[in-house]
Specification:
The structure holds two protein chains of two kinds. Chain A is mainly alpha-helical. Helix content of chain A is 47%, strand content 5%. Chain A has a four-stranded antiparallel beta sheet, covered by helices on one side. Chain A starts with a helix and ends with a helix. By secondary structure, chain B is mostly helical. Helix content of chain B is 67%, strand content 0%. Classes of the chains: A mainly alpha, B mainly alpha. At the A-B interface, α3, β2, α4, α5 and α6 of A face α1, α6, α8 and α16 of B.
């Protein structure tokens, strides 16, 4: 506030320095009907003035010719805007729906003329309308809120019921006395001068303060955004609109007071089978077993597989009972009635499927050839962290002897560190993988006489 | 002044060889200004405050309900399977239709050189914009999660997705928003000279500032008028196809789908005719009381009303023809689903709505063939109220009957609105009336500059009295 007062004080102290001589800007002649104006306009035009104008409360028709106003270029601006709008619309629709985000709807073409007509039309009209409105304002040099003519009381009727001629003093033909006499000869109601302001109009007192306050307030949101974007925080983001982020529903691993046991996840109801889980009609196919043994612990055994200590690791002294338990499980698995023949016809197609699936799911650890040298394994061994159990090679005597049912079981339920793949790979594909695995084993240990002559030749040639 | 006839003229009679004046009474330029500006300058009557209070209360109720809807979800409406486009879309189409009269009067009648439009166009354009505001509200809240409304526009976003430009619903977004923008430009541009008039007459500081700001420093320069008139003509030429396109595209929302009763090619012209029909009815409904209350009967004469009733007969007959043609095509096309849809409309569970529609839209406008009804304001008013009701029911019949009986009989249902539906429709009238009352009070309700340019010219004062013929012949080039 004190600063403002100081500024004001300085302006008051030296009024002469800022005060300029008022300058004559022009003359106004007032008429009371359009016919008189029209006639006068013609005379002003013929007198050779250029910087002059007439001011009327409504568009007086014929005044353009009487004043010698040139045809406006506005239609060209509007046409250019309209064409721009149409081009933008077509380009936008083509690029957005056919290039950047191809949007296939019922097999229709990504871009077609008929479907893009409505928006092209609308955008053309929109831009052309803005062109007409803003072009008109621009060519008229509006908005122009300050105009020295507005100080004339009489001129206020230019928007009501009077008609004016204004002569600009910048016109080369303008001279105060002659032009004034000339205007009087046109029979106006009266003629008056309009002058420039003596002092430049003062700004309202607290405007600077208010403007700087507004400026600070305007800067704050972007500054806050910039700050938040460049820093890290541990607090969760603010959910202004929660959408469906928090849903009042029960999830696994949580507690609830709806059920007496307090669990949100519900156990299986005894004597029921979940939808799609009926497997007893094809035991070999689903379990890799000839029949389900009396001992119904198969599932339980499978679940315990993962607790087995690694073969490579020497069990610590304290783990002896666990190791014993594992040995027991191994024995049990060995005694199971595993199938030894595929429970479906074996085809070339199945072999190819198995190869493909093997490469997707198994090769990362087991290696393409099944030697237990997949990329993940190599990397893990490289790190030497001791937590990795190297997968067994398929080509050891032990593994070669395993019945195919047992292999199927291993894929389904996992073994040692290997997780269960049952939930990810459908039974059909698991059997395909087993088939391919058997082929891999065969490829590593085969009698020479079992190889067809043609293949032998090939092998010799490659050597 | 003395030569101007001051005895009342019956403007509804055509006198051969004589043009009926567009402005009656002893008016010159100054008194036209006075008649229009007086409304903005006089002391505000109590009735205005009462009306505004009532409308604003309804508007408050509307916004309250919108808030309730946003917090709770669209389930507060009666939209249930299979009718997911219930009242909100009916209201949308109803209001957009009403919004067609203003720009039609401003643009199409301007291009056809119908000078009588000058008395009515400003208020009609204002009505257009307010109706489009009401219309825009409904689809805006109908999308459910309103904070995602920006998905409607092709704005780059974190999902790297763009809207589907082959969907009529997206065309609708562009059509309605373009229409609203262009109507607003047209309205505002037309108002600039009149705002300057208000500025030059304003006494208070606030009025001087506000009118001064919005009149953009207009000084009536003929060089400005020249470009202004070009711009106005161009805008009219642009707005004319735009007006026709908007309801065409609204009708695509229905016609491009495959639902029986919607999937018809007659929809675009039929919707446009219906829109003009309802828009003119709404203009008359508003202007008949307003011209009496505001005392602008001289500018808005009985002839204006009569001309508009003629537009209503024409468009009302088109709508009636469309109803008949839909039935004919349903039979002639031999599509059993189509046939069923239309028989169900007229004789099914919504027969009551269908026959309200037919009575109000087909029969009531035909009354305007009788000159007595056409020239008696209160009778026009009553008929127009019927037309307004009928046109709302038309949209109800189209939207609800088709949806409630789709291809799968097991999903058929009967649509019942909830109290929220009903109150929102009433509330939208509150919003509309609030805006219109504010307009009546603060803005020039009649396009003064345009009226002055078509009214009879006053004789010159002083010693210069030009002969009109003389001045015409001396016009160079």
């Amino acid at each position: 506030m004190s600063l403002n007062k100081e500024i004001m004080a300085t302006t008051i102290e030296h009024p002469d320095e800022t005060k300029a001589e008022p300058e004559l800007l022009g003359l106004l002649a007032e008429f009371d009907n359009p016919h008189a104006l029209m006639d006068a306009s013609r005379k002003v035009r013929d007198a050779g003035y250029n910087k002059w104008d007439t001011h009327t409360p409504f568009p007086v028709h014929g005044i353009d010719a009487a004043m010698g106003i040139k045809w406006t270029i506005l239609p060209w601006i509007v046409a250019a805007c309209g064409l721009t709008g149409g081009t933008i619309a077509v380009g936008m629709q083509y690029w957005m729906n056919a290039v950047d985000y191809p949007f296939l709807i019922s097999g229709k073409p990504l871009f077609s003329i008929p479907a893009s007509i409505p928006i092209t039309f609308e955008l053309s009209v929109l831009l052309a309308a803005f062109g007409a409105f803003l072009g008109m304002l621009g060519l008229n040099q509006l908005p122009k809120l300050y105009n020295p003519m507005f100080k004339s009381e009489a001129f206020k009727r230019a928007t009501n019921d009077r008609f004016f001629i204004s002569m600009d003093s910048r016109d080369p033909k303008f001279s105060e006395i002659d032009t004034g006499e000339f205007l009087k000869s046109l029979n106006p109601i009266h003629v008056e001068e309009f002058w420039s302001d003596v002092e430049s109009p003062k700004l309202p007192r607290n405007l600077k303060l208010a403007l700087s306050l507004v400026g600070v307030l305007l800067i704050m949101p972007p500054a806050l955004v910039a700050y938040k974007r460049s820093t890290v925080t541990n607090t969760p983001r603010i959910h202004i609109i929660p959408d469906m982020d928090f849903q009042p529903k029960l999830k696994t691993q949580n507690t609830t007071n709806i059920f007496s046991d307090g669990r949100e996840v519900r156990p299986h109801i005894p004597g029921t089978i979940p939808r799609g889980q009926f497997k007893d009609d094809n035991i070999p196919y689903y379990y890799g077993l000839k029949y389900l043994p009396e001992d119904q612990d198969v599932i339980a055994i499978a679940a315990q597989d993962e607790q087995k200590p690694a073969e490579a690791e020497k069990p610590a002294a304290g783990d002896q009972p666990a190791a014993d338990a594992q040995a027991k499980v191994d024995d049990k698995l060995a005694d199971m009635p595993w199938v030894t023949e595929f429970p479906m016809p074996v085809t070339q197609k199945m072999m190819e499927r198995g190869k493909e699936r093997y490469r997707i799911y198994c090769s990362a650890c087991h290696g393409l050839g099944g030697e237990g040298d997949g990329l993940v394994t190599l990397r893990a061994m490289d790190l030497q962290q001791g937590t990795w159990v190297k997968p067994a090679s398929y080509h050891t005597e032990n593994v070669r002897k395993l019945p195919i049912g047992r292999l199927y079981h291993t894929i389904t339920n996992g073994v040692r560190k290997m997780p269960a793949y049952g939930p990810q790979i459908p039974p059909e594909d698991r059997w395909s993988i087993v088939l391919y695995l058997k082929a891999l084993q065969k490829s590593h240990q085969v009698n020479a006489d079992e190889i067809p002559d043609e293949e032998k030749r090939k092998l010799r040639d490659t050597k | 002044m003395a030569s101007v006839a001051s005895e009342p003229i019956d403007t509804t009679i055509e006198v051969p060889g004589k043009r009926t004046p567009l402005v009656t009474g002893a008016h010159d330029y100054g008194t036209v200004t006075e008649a229009v500006c007086r409304l903005a300058e006089c002391k505000t009557p109590k009735a205005w405050f009462l009306a505004l209070g009532f409308s604003a209360a309804l508007m408050g109720m509307l916004f309250g309900l919108v808030g309730y809807l946003i917090i709770t979800g669209v389930g507060v409406w009666g939209n249930r399977s299979p009718v997911f486009w219930g009242w909100p879309i009916v209201n949308f189409v109803f209001w957009v239709g009403i919004g067609h009269a203003g720009t039609l009067i401003s643009a199409i009648l301007f291009l056809f050189r119908q000078d009588w439009r000058t008395g009515i166009n400003r208020a009609a354009e204002a009505m257009t914009i307010f109706a489009v505001v009401c219309a825009g509200l409904f689809p805006g809240i109908h999308i459910g999660r309103v904070w995602l409304a920006y998905w409607l526009f092709p704005i780059p976003n974190q999902m790297s997705m763009w809207p589907n430009f082959r969907s009529p619903l997206l065309w609708d977004v562009f059509a309605v928003s373009t229409y609203a923008t262009v109507s607003l430009l047209f309205w505002y541009m037309g108002m600039i000279p009149d705002l300057a008039t208000l500025r030059d007459r304003a006494k208070g500081k606030i009025q001087q500032f506000a009118y001064g700001l919005f009149s953009l420093g207009w000084n009536g320069s003929s060089r400005h008028w020249h470009r202004y008139e070009r711009a106005y003509l161009l805008l009219a030429a642009l707005a004319t196809p735009l007006v026709l396109s908007v309801h065409t595209i609204v009708s695509f929302d229905f016609a491009v789908s495959q639902l029986p009763g919607w999937h018809t090619t007659i929809f675009p012209p039929y919707f446009v005719a219906g829109a003009v029909f309802s828009g003119f009815a709404m203009v008359l409904t508003l202007m008949i009381p307003v011209r009496s209350i505001c005392g602008i009967k001289d500018l808005l004469t009985d002839r204006h009303l009569e001309n508009m009733t003629k537009v209503i007969i024409a468009t009302g007959s088109m709508v009636g023809y469309a109803y008949a043609m839909e039935f004919f095509i349903a039979w002639y096309g031999g599509n059993r689903y189509e046939t069923f849809a239309f028989i169900n409309r007229a004789f099914g569970p919504y027969a009551w709505a269908y026959w309200i529609m037919v009575t109000c839209n087909v029969i009531s406008p035909q009354l305007f063939w009788i000159k007595k009804i056409r020239t008696t304001p209160w009778m026009i008013f009553v008929v127009c109220i019927f037309v307004n009701i009928g046109m709302w029911f038309e949209r109800f019949v189209i939207t609800v009957t088709s949806l409630s009986r789709d291809f799968l009989p097991s999903s058929w249902g009967y649509f019942k609105p909830t109290i929220v539906d009903v109150l929102m429709l009433i509330g939208s009238f509150g919003l509309f009336m609030t805006l219109f009352l504010l307009f009546c009070k603060f803005l020039p309700m009649v396009a003064m500059a345009e009226v002055k340019s078509v009214m009879h010219e006053p004789p010159g004062h002083g010693d210069y009295q030009p002969d009109r013929n003389d001045y015409k012949s001396s016009e160079e080039k």
